[in-house]
Every structure is written in structure tokens, then in C-alpha cells.
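Intended use. Records like the one below are meant for learning the mapping from a protein sequence to its folded structure. Do not use them to infer anything beyond what is encoded.
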Amino acid sequence: MRVEASGPRTARYVVVGEAPGAAEAREGMPFVGPSGELLRDALRKMGLDPNEVYFTNVYKEYRPGNPTPTNDEIQESIPELAEELGSLPNVRHVLAVGNVSMQALTGKKGGILKSQGQLMEPRKAMEKALAGVDIMPIMHPAYVLRNNNYQTQNLFQEIVGSFVALGKKKDEEEIIFVKGLEAWEAFWEEMWNHTRGAIDIEATPVPWWHEDFQIISAAISFDGKRAYVIDTREDWKLFKKTMLQEGLAIRWVMHNGAYDRQALLSRGIDITLMFDTMTAQYLIDPNSRKGLQYLTSMYLGLPPYKDVDYKHILEEPWEKVAEMNGRDAIRTWLLFEHLMPKIRDDVRLNRLMQHIMLPGINALIENELKGMPIDIGRLADVTEEYERKLARIADQLREVARRYGMDKFNPRSNKDLQELIYDRIKLPVVKRTDTGAPSLDKEARLALRDNHPVMTILDEYKITAQRLGTFLYPWADMERNGKIHTKYKPNHVVSGRLSSEKPNMQQVPRDEDIRGVFGGLPGHKLVMLDYSQLELRLAAAFANEETMLDAYRNGRDLHKLTAERVLGDPEGRYVGKMLNFSLLYGAGWRTFQNIAWVQYETKLSDAQAQELREGFFKAYPGLKEWHRVVIENARAIGYVESPLGRRRYLPNINNMHDSAARAHDEKVALNHAVQSLGSDLMLLSLIEMHKRGFWIAATVHDSVILVAPEEEAEMIGKEAKEIMETIHDVVESKFGYIIRVPLVADLTIADHWQK
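Structure written out for the chain above:
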């Protein structure tokens, strides 16, 4: 049965769906079933009467079961759809509902959850029909109905709002290039007439410490209507003098201020970051995309405008870069006006922004500039040692390969390794990659270790090569004046934990020789502090698990206690540690068995894994009850929230069709509060240390590394330890939350980083 389009042919707004469902077939018009009503209601809420909208589908035949149109069926439908849309005289805005519609209109296949809310270009076959027309993809309403949670519903409504906003009159954007005395005088006057402004910079795509880094332009907007753009390559001294005028008191708004403020600060311009729009969106929904163009398209209905080749930005005409830079500043201001009330009017978000995120970002920026000392001599020695080791192991692998008839063998080639292990030696395939090839990852290598001696050699080769390629070689390239400057990303991990890059300090191996290359600054010591069992402590408090809490309050070793209560042997601390960290968040026995093998290299039979897991939860029954309550609450409301207000939405917590996705969200529900609070405790501690002028060289999960003059190291270590162990007082005073478990920070002072 064919279902034709409905709505006025003179409509400016058009909705294109995938294919008609049963309700549409009965009514003879598209978008009238549950999905259609959800979309129509969303349009009404945004002020657009659905009767003024033209509704159609890519594939117009109804089929029982409403199967998704195939690629061939989509291709066959495109000519008719192009003719249909091209015949509409006033169409200006098209909502592509679902992957099929997005594919038919733009040529992009799949990934609508990442593409939705953005404005996209038409595919070639649609260029004539949709010339000058906005195309905005959106998830199918059926997805919203299946994933009945606040996050999905809210996002769907916001994207519909952005679609409706496309037809509203936009203010003209004025981009002013500040060139010549008259333009500079006008800019100076504007600077003194405002107390708030949005600033954005464009720079070469390398870190600020790199020799090729340069700031190309800076744009400032004071009203979201016009932007002043400065050619910082020609007028840097004048720009710097202007920004640092005594008495100038502008509170600056930025998008990703962690980058812009740091770049400016590295070149001597220190300005106050008052509000960061990327951070605001991160707090509102940490799962969402946070790009400026995407957010202003989704929230404000503004068209795309970024067409600069960032990788070759110096080859682009300056005026083209400046035009985009100006729009960035204008949109940052407009996004600020949209997001600021959401942060200001939500107590939990406002506290996070004012007490943790903004001071935390500023502290990280300033300490990233100081850097982490690296011992160049040690780095060279360790690198040379690993190179010799790698060559020796490679020769051992080649010898094994020759014995199995492979005279031409490259140990760096996965193809050669797979042939040797699986085709020549004929070891069983215990795991496959996503592409279906036999895997040789750590889990597979461990599983095959007892099958043939070559697996031990291969494991050592892989680890050694990884140490060189991922750490030692890049560190040598990143070293500048005896330091390395990592980049922390405070708006990246949904739990609130910090991540870092270039280098990733969170992933530095615990090997003493690898970590030992850091430090060695003459006349200075590294002051290293590490929260002791922070996640276990916080989980015990959340669960009100009295046995665990009693152990921490009395200074007992929880790993020994677990070994005593589960194994009857307090000396079995290693197994106790494995149990504590593996089962804290309720892993099933098979998952526990896998963790024990891959992470602790401990083989457990099915019976042993089940028995140990059962014994653990008998020893700590409060944990199991806490797991049950947290998951039940998460299922009821669709999200979890940390004690300080970090919210994590769980779109699959009630997904009965995908057990793996549901299990993932259940695990997230359990670990979110613990990991978020732990991260915030660390960040609050860093803020307090920064206030006291400490040199924060690095932070890794629940630890911090300070650099201190040798004669002050012990004093600074004691002071930093006190900050970390009493940070619960700051949490109580600023957030009203009481942490009911002692916090302990272990202190080590040495010349080089120790594990």
C-alpha cells in the first residue's frame, strides 16, 4: 500500500521520514502513529503548527512489519524524492528523520546519533532540488520511544527546536578587521565600554610549546552581533598591549578556554576565564558533543560556517581564517547567552562550575605551562636499553619462524605473526578481532601462553615495542628544555575524571625504569602523593558497609582483611586485592574470572571464581544491597548523579533488547558516583595546592606529583598531604556533603618518579 505525502505544498518546513508504518497505512498519511505524534507534539511545543509542515517519506510503500528500506530501495527512491522536493516552491528547511532519510538526502550512511542537529549538504542527486535548503538530521522518534529516558527525550526536543529556529530571522553578523589607526581606536573604545566579552583565537595545529606554534588571529565580540578580528602575526605587540591595559576589567567568555587561555598565557597574555561554554555543555550533558558549530546549530539553528583547512591553516587566506574566527567569537557569545541561565539556575551545576570546573581549568592551564621535569640522560639510556632488548627478542622470534619454514619473517607484521602462530604452529584461535582475524592481543597471548613457548617471547616483544613506540620515542620528541608539557582535558571523560594527551600521563606504565625517567631536576625533589584505596573507601561509605568502614576507621589493611574473611588467610593479600578491585562494582563470576586472568594473571576455574565471588559478598553484604538500590533507582529515573551533582544519563538502563548495552549502563550506574567524587576530590585538592603556589607537575587518577626545592620538599609534602586528607572539609562547606570515611594520602619524596 502506497502512502502519499501530506501537508501544504507551499510549506517552508518539510519533514522526510523513512517509510510508512501500520498506522500511516491505515490513515493514508505519514507521521500519524506514535512516532509521528511524538514529532508533531515536539513541533507544537517549539511554536510550529504541524498543519503548516509538509510530511513525506523516502520509501512510500507500506510493508507488513515495516522493515527498514535496503540500500537498493533507498537508491531507487531518490529520483522520485528529488522530483517531489524540487516541486515544492517555498521549501527552505528539511528535517531528515532517521538514518534512511539522512542517507537519501545527504549520502551519509549511519551514525545519525553523532550527525543529528547539524546542518548538512545535500547529496549530488539532491543538489538541484535542495539548493540553498537547510538539511538537519534527527534520530527517529521510534528510538526515543524505545529508549524512554530524560536524556533522549530532551535531546530530541532540543533538535526539533533548532530545526524550527532555522526559519526565524537571524541578526546580521558584522566582522570587523582591526587594521589601521581608526579601526584600532574604535576597538579600544569598545574594550573600555564593556565588562564582558567573548574571545576566540585561531592558531597553527600544534601544541603551544612546539616551535611551529603561532597565534594567527584573535577575535572578540561584546554583543553577539559584531566581532573585532586582529591579525596577531602583524599586530601582536599592539594586541598584547591592548589586552594588558591597566584598569581593564573584562570578564572573558570562551569556548574551550582550556585551549584559548593557555595559548594566550604561553605568549604573555593573562586574562580571566569567567565562563566556558564547552564546560557548561559538559556539565549539562557530559555524553553530548561539544563543538561550537554543532552546539550553535543545535541550540540556535545557525548554519555551518567552518570551511578552513586547519591542517594547512597557514596556506589559507588570512581574511578567510579571520572571517571564521569572528564567527566563532560571535557564536561563543550567543551560546553563552543560551547556556548561562541553565548553569546559573541549577544549584548543582552552578556549584560545579564555580567551585570545581573554572578554578580547576585555570589551575591546570597554569601548571601545564610549568611542565613535568624529564631526565634526558635517563631517557636516552632507558631507550637504548629497550632498543637492545627489542632487537634480541626479535631475533628469537625470527629463529622460531625459521624452524617453522618462514625464512622471510617480520616480527612487526601482524600478518606474519598470525601466520606463524595460527597457520604454522597451529595454535587454537581463542579470540578474534572486530574484522574476524585471529587476535594476538594481551588476552589471547595470555590464553595461549601454556600452549607454546613462543607466546611468552611474543608477549615480551609486544610489551617492549609498545614501551618504545608509545612512550619513550614520543617523549623524546615532546621534551623541551628538560620538561614535558602534557595537555589535560577536563571536559572529556563523562565521569569527570581527567584525561590527558601529548603525552597521556594517565597511561604511563608502572615500570620503575619507565616512570623513573621523570624527575632529576637539579636542586629539586619530586613530592608524590597518592590517595590510598580511594574508590574502595568511597564505595564503602556509599554502601554504608560497616565491616569495610570499621577497617578504614581503625587503619586496617582492607586487602588483608578480605583475604582473611574470604580465604581464611590474612597473608593472601594479593588475592584479597584482586577480589576487592574486581568485584567492587558487582562483576559476575565470568567477568571476575576474566579480570583475574587478564589483569592479575591468576587462573581460576569456574567453581573457584563462583566460590570466591560468593564469599566476597558474604563478607561485605552492604555492597550487594548498594548495587541493588543504585540500579533500581537508575532504572526508575534514567540517570545517576554523584554527590556533588555530576549527572550521567543511561539511555540503555532499561533496554530489554540489548543485554550488553544494558549491562554496560548498570556498571556505569554503580561506578559513576564513586569515580566522579574521587575525581572531584583530587581536582579540589589540586585547586587548593595551586592557591598555595605549589608546582603541580602531573596528576594521574588519584595521585599528584609536585616539584619542590630540595630544602622545602618535606614541608610541602606534609602540607599537600594535609590538603588531600582534609579536603572533605572543603566538600562539606561548598557542597554540603559529608564524606563519612577517613581519607589517607601516601607520601613519597624522591629524585625521580616511583611507582
